[in-house]
Amino acid sequence: MKVLGFILQKEFRQIRRDTTILRIMFMLPIIQLVIFPLAMDFDVKSINISIVDNDHSTYSQKLISKIASSGYFKVVSAETSFKKSLAYIEKGQADLVMEIPAGFERNLVREGVQKIGISVDAINGTKAGIGGQYLNSIITDFNVNIDMNLRGAIAPEQQGAIDIRYTNWFNPRAEYKYNVVPAILVLLLTMIGGFVTALNIVKEKEVGTIEQINVTPIKKWEFILGKLIPFWVIGMIVFTLGLTISWLVYGIVPRGSFLTLYAFAAVYLIALLGFGLLISTYSDNQVQAMFVAFFFIMIFILMSGFFTSTDGMPGWAKVISDMTPVAHFVKTDRMIILKGSSFDDVKMEFLYLVGFAAVLNGWAIWNYRKTN
Amino acid sequence: MEDNKAIICKDLTKQFGDFYAVNKISFEVAKGEIFGFLGANGAGKTTAMRILCGLSYPTSGTATVAGFDVYKQQESIKKNIGYMSQKFSLYENLTVLENIEFYGGVYGVPGKEIKKRSDELIMTLGLQSEAKKLVGELPLGWKQKLAFSVAIFHRPQIVFLDEPTGGVDPVTRRQFWDMIYQAAASGITIFVTTHYMDEAEYCNRISVMVDGKLEALDSPANLKKEFGVNSMDEVFYQLARGAKRSGE
C-alpha cells in the first residue's frame, strides 16, 4: 500500500505540472455544455419550398398561404411549371417542390379528393424527411378544414376524424437541450477515461520511463491503480462540474437520486479507464493510441444513442450498440436525470456497467506485462 | 550456486523468430566486480541485459541474478538490482528531490531513510541549488549522474548500466566513473555496457559480444596480451570487424 502512495503522489504531481492537459480537462465540460446544446437543434425551421400553382383558385391560394405562414417553410419561388421549380432543387435553392394541379379546387369541392405532387431533395435526408412530414400535416389539417367547411352546415358532430395530440413526457416542450445535456455529461467521462489515460501511459512508454518502472519491484496492480485513481478523481470532479453547469445554464437538475447517478458515473468511469488502459497496453506510441482511441470513441458516439435514438437501429446495429458501455450509461443517465428513475429501475444497466468495468480492466491487467 | 557470484549465465539464448539476438552466452560475474559488457551496435548486449534484469524472458539456457532465477523469480531479481537504461528514464517533469523520493519509495526505502539519503546525495552531487528544479532543466551530464545515483539509491546488490555515458563530455565521464568506483567499493556489483574503450580499461573484466555470441572474456590486460596489441581499441576492432550485424 505504501508503494501505491508513492505512485499516486508522483502521478498527481505530474498531472499538476502538465497544465495544458489539466486546463483542457476542465475547459472541456464548460465549452461542451455551453455550446453544444445551443448549437445542436435538430428542429428543422427553414425549409425552402418552391410552389407550382396550376390552379390559381381561392383554395390553392389558401393552401399556399397556410404553408407560408406555418413558420417552417420559406417560399422561395412560385413557378408556372414543375420543370422550372425542379431547377431550384437542382441548384440547391429549394428543399421541396409542391405542385398543385389544375382543377384542384373543383375536384376538391365536387369529388372531395385531389392529389398533390410533392418532390423532396433527398440529399439532405433529415431536412427533406422532416419537411415532407411537416407539409403532410399542414395539408391534412387543410383537408380537415375543407371537410368541415363542406359538411359543417349539416352535421359537425358526425365528424369522425381522430385527433392525435402529442404530449412529450419528461421533456414537455420537446427541447433538444434536455436530450443533449445528459449525453454530454457521458461524453465528458468518455473523453477523460478513454483518451487521457491511454495517452498518459503510452507517453511513459514513449519516453522510456515505463522500462524503469518495469525493472522496479512495483506490482502490476499498484502501477495500474496508480494510473487509474488520479484520472478517476479528475473524471468525477469534471462530472460534478458538468452537473453544476447544467444546473446554472439550463436549470437541469437530476430528478432521480444523486447517489444513483454518481454510482453509475463512478462505475462507468472505471470501465472507460479500463478501456483507455487496454488501448495503452496495445499501443507503442501516442499517435497509435490516439488513433485507436479515436476509432472506438467514434463508434461509441455514433452507435450509442448520444445524438440519435438507438431504437430505430436494425437488429445487428443494436447488438453492437449494446456492446458499448457508453450506450448503457447514456440511456440510464437520461433516465435518472430527466425521468427520475430509481436504482431499481436501472439495476440491470448497472450490472452491465460493472461487467464492462471488470472485463476491460481485467483484460488490460492481463495484457500489461512487466516481463516480455 | 556459489556464494561469491552475483550473476551466473549458462548457454543463455534469446531468439526472435529465426534470429538469435543472444546466442548461448555463458559467463559469471563475481560480487563487487566491475564487469564490462562490450559489443558493436546490434551485437545483443541490451537484449542480454534486459533478460538479466527480468524485463525479458530468455528462450533457453539458464541464468541467476543475485541468486534468483531469470525465468521464475524476476520480481525478486528486481528488488535486488538497480538499472539505468540507454534512454534517460527519470521523470523530466518532476524535480530532483521528487524523482529520488519516488524511486526510493517504490523500492521500499523507509521515509526517514529517503530523507537522509537524499540530503547526502544532493550534497555529494553538489546539486543543492538544483534540488527543487525540474530534472528536465538539468544538463545531460548531471542528469546521467543523477540517474546513476537513483539507480543505486536503494543499495542494490547489482547495478546494470546500459551505455550510461553516451553523449556525455569527457570530464563528466571521468566523474561518472569515480562514482562507479565508489559504488563498487561499497560492495555493489557493476554490470556496464559501453562503446568507449577507455572506459573498458576501467573494468575488472571485460566480455565482448559479436553477433549474439560471447567472443572474449578476460581482464583488459590479459586481452591485450592475448591479441598482441597495445589498446582495448585494437582488441575490440579485431573482434568486431568480423561482425555481420550492425545497427540496433
From TrEMBL, chain A:
Its main location: membrane. InterPro entries: ABC-2_transporter_component, ABC2_TM, ABC2_TM_bact-type. Residues 132-371 form the ABC transmembrane type-2 domain. GO terms for molecular function: ABC-type transporter activity. The keyword Protease does not apply. The chain crosses the membrane at residues 21-40, 180-202, 229-253, 259-279, 291-309, 350-368. Gene3D superfamilies: abc type-2 transporter like domain (3.40.1710.10). Pfam families: ABC2_membrane_3. It is found in: Cell membrane. Keywords: Cell membrane, Membrane, Transmembrane, Transmembrane helix, Transport. It is a multi-pass membrane protein. GO terms for cellular component: plasma membrane. The keyword Ligase does not apply. Belongs to the ABC-2 integral membrane protein family. This is ABC transporter permease. It comes from Dyadobacter frigoris.
Automatic annotation (TrEMBL), chain B:
This is ABC transporter ATP-binding protein. InterPro entries: AAA+_ATPase, ABC_transporter-like_ATP-bd, P-loop_NTPase. PANTHER family: ABC TRANSPORTER G FAMILY MEMBER 20 ISOFORM X1, ATP-BINDING CASSETTE, SUB-FAMILY H, MEMBER 1. Residues 7-236 form the ABC transporter domain. The keyword Zinc-finger does not apply. SUPFAM superfamilies: P-loop containing nucleoside triphosphate hydrolases. GO terms for molecular function: ATP binding; ATP hydrolysis activity. Keywords: ATP-binding, Nucleotide-binding. Gene3D superfamilies: P-loop containing nucleotide triphosphate hydrolases.
